[in-house]
Specification:
Mean pLDDT: 91
Strand content: 5-15%
Structural class: alpha/beta
CATH superfamily of the largest domain: Glycogen Phosphorylase B
Number of helices: 12
Shape: globular
CATH class of the largest domain: Alpha Beta
CATH topology of the largest domain: Rossmann fold
Length: 375
């Protein structure tokens, strides 16, 4: 691989939380690890992030704090200012790495330089900007057939940051945001059927969902709510669990919590769809389950799994160094090409397809607008 030392790289981070986040904030954490990893490899990195971010390199901030830290800040206004500041200075960089969803790509439509690479962390259908940005996916399962990708760049962590134990714990753990697609209600049903205590940790996202499907089951004993967790408390909660329950109700895009749990030695009970079969080795680092009944039946076997194998899997496949290597390969290709190639006939066909008809597991899709017209 050609050395990219000295490359002037702009990393555009999300702005919901500081970079890195103190607790929840997977996109912010990944953006931080990319920026730090590239800086360690000798690239000249500028991180565009909230003002309370902590990065040893150059930080440019027009957003004073993470938007979720101050509800009085306008997300619409500060998102525009955040992206606008980057593109005001775009001529200073050799490459822009966008981790901030679709909006930066609309700003890039007015120019052809510098090359733009977008990691798709969450949005669904960015076809309108496909001629301007290169793409990386965070799992093979999350690839849109209407787009071309330079690489699958699995998220990575530093395993040394996570405490390890070879002793299985006595409780199951759900760790994530409380939203139907993350499956806290499924975790409750699995734990109850298995007769094992469950701890619920995370941030509220869908309050109605939490109030109706989660809160009525919390009794402080069989189901315990510990709320948002961060730092050492979060890591120890992961380490001391019997298993992490990650029974999502729609295909997972990646699932950073799974590799964090495995780094601690904690195996994963995961839904057998989306990215999860790419992350969890069935019968080795956890179990892939097709439903509640299958997951509950697997709970007793969690204690028999070799927790050292869980950590070794992360050390082998999901480190920051592995992630950075994959991105460096994508950067090299983007710099060589400058702009993405025209779409293939098959990609054009998918771009004209009604994505409301694509399988999305059990999560209900929003109402289909009558104004949409597809070929």
């Amino acid at each position: 691989m050609t050395s990219l030392r000295g490359l002037r790289l702009a990393v555009l981070a999300p702005i919901a939380w500081p970079v890195p986040p103190r607790g929840y904030g997977p996109w912010e954490q990944v953006a931080f690890d990319i920026a730090s990893g590239m800086r360690d490899r000798g690239l000249d990195v500028t991180l565009f992030a909230p003002g309370t971010s902590r990065f040893e390199g150059k930080v440019e901030a027009v957003v004073p704090v993470g938007l979720n830290e101050d509800p009085d800040l306008s997300s619409e206004v500060y998102s525009a200012l955040h992206v606008g500041e980057l593109f005001r200075r775009a001529h200073e960089f050799d490459l822009i790495h966008n981790n901030f969803d679709w909006k930066p790509m609309t700003y890039a439509l007015g120019s052809t330089t510098p090359p733009l690479l977008t990691t798709i962390h969450g949005f669904s259908s960015p076809h309108a900007c496909a001629w301007r940005s290169f793409y990386c996916s965070i799992s093979n399962a999350d690839r849109d057939p209407g787009l071309g990708y330079l690489a699958t760049t699995y998220n990575g962590i530093d395993p040394q940051r996570f405490p390890f134990t070879g002793r299985p714990g006595e409780y199951l753990l759900f760790l994530g945001r409380f939203h139907p697609e993350k499956g806290a209600h499924v975790a409750i049903e699995v734990a109850k059927r298995a007769g094992v205590r469950l701890k619920l940790a995370g941030i509220p996202h869908d309050v109605r969902y939490f109030d109706e499907l989660v809160d009525p089951h919390i009794d402080g004993d069989a189901v315990e709510f510990v709320g948002p967790v961060e730092g050492t408390t979060r890591d120890e909660l992961l380490r001391d669990a019997l298993g992490l329950v990650h029974m999502t109700t729609r295909p997972e895009r990646f699932g950073l919590t799974m590799i964090e749990a495995m780094a601690c030695g904690t195996p994963v009970l995961g839904a057998n769809m989306g990215s999860i079969p790419e992350i969890v080795v069935d019968g080795v680092t956890g179990f892939l389950c097709d439903g509640v009944e299958a997951a509950a039946e697997r709970v007793p076997a969690l204690a028999s799994l070799d927790r050292r194998a869980c950590r070794a899997h992360v050390e082998r496949e999901f480190t920051v160094d592995r992630m950075v290597d994959r991105y460096l390969g994508a950067y090299t290709t983007a710099l060589e090409r400058g702009l993405p190639p025209p779409p293939t006939a098959e990609q054009e066909r998918w771009r004209a397809h009604d994505w409301w008809d694509r399988p999305m597991a059990f999560t209900e899709l929003p109402p289909k607008p009558h104004s949409l017209k597809f070929a």
